[in-house]
Amino acid sequence: MLIDWFTVIAQMINFLILIWLLKHFLYQPILNAMAAREKNIADNIAAASDAKSQADAKKIELEEELQALQVKKEELFAAAKAQAEKEYQTLLKDARQQVQDRQSEWHRTLTMEREAFLTDLQKQIREELFAIASLLLHDLADAALEERMAASFQRNFSAMEKEEKGRFLAALPQLSQPVLLRSAFELPADLQNRLLQSLRQDIPAAYPIRFEVEPSLLGGIELVIGGEKIAWSLANHLALLQQRMEQIMERTKRDGTGE
Amino acid sequence: MNLTPDQIIFWQYGFLNLNLTIVMTWLIGAILTLSSWLITRHVSRQLQVAPWQNLAETIILFVRKQICEVGLPTPDRYLSLLVTLFLFIALSALLTIIPGYEAPTGSLSTTTGLAILIFIAVPAYGIHERGLGSYLKHYVEPTPVMLPFNILTELSRTLALAVRLFGNMLSDTMILAIVLIIAPLFFPIIVQLLGLLTGFVQAYIFTILAMVYIAAAVSGKEG
């Protein structure tokens, strides 16, 4: 008999027990471990994926920041360049201004120096000229000239406008001292008389007329009533000469400075 | 020589007996249980695993893949039965390299017991998956005339399963005995190795057949 039925049943029971034992000791723990490992791996992959997407997001963010910084940098650079250009222009302008100022200062100094020199020269020339003229007239002045002068004075006084003469003579009533007739030299008596006659046509006899010698007149005669005077003298002509000379000097100076 | 280890009896009381088949089965069971305990005592859930755990995982994954390939949707439900079958039969064959060892699968009682378990498991899984009515209906398909033939198919394939395993395991021992007589010096080793190979092939075939029968019962299609 090849089949022992007791053994068959015993083996079936043995096998069932073995199934239970292996399920308990082998399959369950191994399957659990495998499931746990799979879950672990899946978790890790998910975490890595998360981290990757985070990193990607961060990367994009950083790239944007970098771009913004680049733009900012360029803006700042452009602003700095513009500022530098502006500064450069300002400094250049200042420097030009300074050069111009110095130049004009120098010009002014130069002009002033020349003016001073010219003024000085002019003054000296004028003085010299005046001195020569004075000397010349002093040498030339004599009685004949006196007479001619008196005649000239007489003619001038007579030729005066009536209004002007009236205004001049209006001071007579307030006069406390005599009317003065000054001359550079002592006038001869006949000339004095002639002059008196002529003057008395306009000046009443109530007002005395006195003759005085005044060497600074350089020849010539002047009539003084209070603060007013009418004169004909070489000094007057010399003053006119001096005035003209000054005008000429002025013109020369203007031409010299290029104005 | 003994044709079957059933005949070596250590203890007997009436029809109860303790023969070599049972003792060897216990031995194999003990080895499997003990090694399972050792492997899973410090089971690792991380990527780094011990070599033995790796081996166990490889076997389990291999069977699971096979189950998936024959078309069973929830492999873990059949895993205990099928992996245990494979390990038991494979270890029975492997231990034949030890002198004095008798494979329990070389006993027709053992193979019959295993075949009967499959014979019970197939309709049990079928009914569990599809319901009693649906399962029984496949006996009268395509026509009720096929009912006796279907039942006969069920019985005959179970018998074939038992006899195939028994025959192969026994043949190893027989061939070894014969070769030992003819050429005692060198040939037995080659035959032994060949036996080892056929033992594994048998373990694979028995497991695959059981798997196919269960798949047929569960899916309602003939395997």
Would you kindly provide a written description of the structure presented here, covering whatever features stand out?
The complex is a heterodimer of chains A (259) and B (223). Chain A is built from 5 helices and 4 strands. With 259 residues, chain A is of the alpha+beta class. Chain A has a 4-stranded mixed sheet with strand order 2-1-3-4. In chain A, a hairpin with a 2-residue loop joins strand 3 (220-225) and strand 4 (228-233). Chain B has 223 residues and is mainly alpha-helical. Chain B has 7 helices and 2 strands. A two-stranded antiparallel ribbon of chain B has the order 1-2. In chain B, a hairpin with a 2-residue loop joins strand 1 and strand 2 (16-19). Chain B is globular and about 60 Å long. The interface between A and B is large, with 33 and 46 residues.
The major beta sheet of chain B can be summarized as: 2 strands, antiparallel
Spatial strand sequence of the major β-sheet of chain A: 2-1-3-4
Q: Residue share in helices of chain B?
A: over 70%
Radius of gyration of chain B: 20 Å
Distance between the termini of chain A: 157 Å
State the order of secondary-structure elements of chain A, H for helix, E for strand.
HHHEHEEEH
Beta content of chain A: 5-15%
Major sheet description of chain A: 4 strands, mixed
Return the structural class of chain A. Answer: alpha+beta
> Assembly state here?
heterodimer
Biggest interface found? A-B, 33 and 46 residues
Helical stretch tally of chain B: 7
State the total count of DSSP E strands of chain B.
2
